[in-house]
Amino acid sequence: MAGKRFARRVKDIDISGIRKMFESAGPGAINLGLGQPDFDTPSHIKEAAICAIREGFTGYTPGPGILELRTALCEKFKNENGLEFSPSEIIVTSGASEALEIALACLVEPGDEVLIPDPGFVSYKTLTTIMGAKAVPVPLEEDLTLSPQKLTEYIGPATRAFIVNSPANPTGAVQSPEDMKAFSQIADDHNITMICDEVYEHFIYEGRHVSPALYSDNVITVNAVSKTYAMTGWRLGYVAARDEYIQQMLKIHQYVQACANSIAQKAAVAAVGGSLEPVITMREEFRKRRNVLVEGLNSIGLDCALPGGAFYAFPYAGDDYPDIVSELISSGVIVVPGSAFGSNGSGHIRISYAASMDDIKQALDIMEKTIRC
Ligand code: PLP
Fold first, then answer.
1. pLDDT tens-digit profile of 108-138?
2. Which of 16, 97, 126, 163 most suits a substitution to test ligand 1, by most atoms within 8 Å of the C-beta?
3. Under CATH, which number does the domain 43-273 receive?
4. Is 113 left (phi over 0), alpha (psi -120 to 50) or beta?
5. What are the DSSP calls for 199-252, one per residue?
6. DSSP tag of 25
7. Ligand 1 centroid to 238 CA: how many Å?
8. Rounded distance between C-alpha atoms, residue 279 and residue 294, angstroms
9. What atom in ligand 1 is closest to the CA of residue 97?
10. Do 8-41+277-372 and 43-273 share a fold?
11. How would you class 117 by CB atoms within 10 Å of its CB: exposed for 0-12, middle for 13-18, buried for 19 or more?
12. 177 with 308: CB under 8 angstroms?
């Protein structure tokens, strides 16, 4: 095996900072490093999956996903986002991760550029790099949002796409409805594509979510049931876009995935077609935890603005943040250094509050002792 040649663009990829933290968690550690709801998938969704297995719904499905699910997703888009899509404008994917992958794969080639928020979700840079294109980081503003005006300054002749994520990982920031409209206008003005990652759309505590696809056809909307319905392991996402995009994305999807998991698709019909009640219950629990965490962080001297959405706090810890992260991990609290999300995340720490209130309070006690001594 020695001396085997591998693609440089893959060899050079760093192992995700989040995974490193996850793997370094000792037994009994409080894990505030993970981006997944700590709730169980609602029972009616699990029942739908059990039923699918009993009925032998275990074979390949149509590549874009079962019509029942794509129809339910059209209803969801209409009722929750005011968007009109037909089932043929939706592809059901293996999580939002695959949705991002096929969106980027159909848009870029070597030499092209994709503008990404910095700090931003780890996959944006890596997937762009894997596609052979260049990710161009756009620094976030002081309030941790992406400025449409700043974004425009980074657009050049090689720019093919830009990614917006609201509410955002790792910052919890929510873009305003005006910003979303401005982003869609930028896509139209420059004839480039906006990829809008909306996986946290239901976890907003201040502000409201507006889908930019309302204003432009140059938008690829990426979403998933992963976070919304506590279904991260089911691997079920979706992408919605106008036909021109779908035709290209389908070509990639059919070879990399064939189809999304058949059982998870049936479960997603129950999720998307069911009541939002369990989601609202989760959201309100997250809101309480966010308030306790952010107040606690500020009281121990970690400067933290109140994040409007998702389930992450992103306090500023200063130049010593790598030492603080290491000390917290040695003391049994797993958090992620902000630099894992881009160089502009340096100085910050990402703390997930998708953990029980008891864990959050205990972690705050440990943080207070660690940071004060
Ligand atoms: N987009 C964002 C902003 C995320 O935070 C994540 C997961 O953490 C994903 C996409 C990937 O979601 P999925 O698990 O559905 O692939």
1. 999 999 999 999 999 999 999 999 999 999 9
2. 97
3. 3.40.640.10
4. beta
5. TTTT-BSSS----GGGT-SSEEEEEESTTTTT-GGG--EEEE--HHHHHHHHHH
6. P
7. 11
8. 22
9. 16
10. no
11. buried
12. no
Asked, as a colleague might, if the bond just before 27 is cis with ω within 30 of 0, I would say: no
- Tell me: pLDDT of 18 over 70: no
Mutate which of 18, 118, 123, 171 for ligand 1 pocket (most atoms within 8 A of beta carbon): 123
DSSP state of 79: I
Which residues line ligand 1 at a C-beta cut-off of 6 Å?
A: 35, 95-97, 121, 165, 169, 197, 199, 224, 226, 232, 237
Q: How far apart are CA 82 and CA 114, in angstroms?
A: 28
- According to DSSP, residue 333 is labeled E
Q: Identify the architecture of domain 8-41+277-372 in CATH.
A: Alpha-Beta Complex (3.90)
The whole-angstrom separation of Cα 216 and Cα 357 is 41
Q: Is pLDDT above 80 for 13?
A: yes
Going by CA atoms, what residue is nearest to atom 10 of ligand 1?
Answer: 96
Query: Is it the case that residue 215 has pLDDT exceeding 70?
Result: yes
The residue type of 234 is W
| Rounded Cα distance, 23 and 329, in Å | 11
pTM of the entire predicted model:
0.96
pLDDT in tens, 333-363: 999 999 999 999 999 999 999 999 999 999 9
- State both tokens at 98: 């695959």
**pLDDT single digits (tens) 307-325:** 999 999 999 999 988 899 9
- Between the CA of 32 and the centroid of ligand 1 the distance, in Å, is 16
**Closest CA to ligand 1's atom 5:** 169
Domain borders along the chain are 8-41+277-372, 43-273
The pLDDT of residue 17: 59
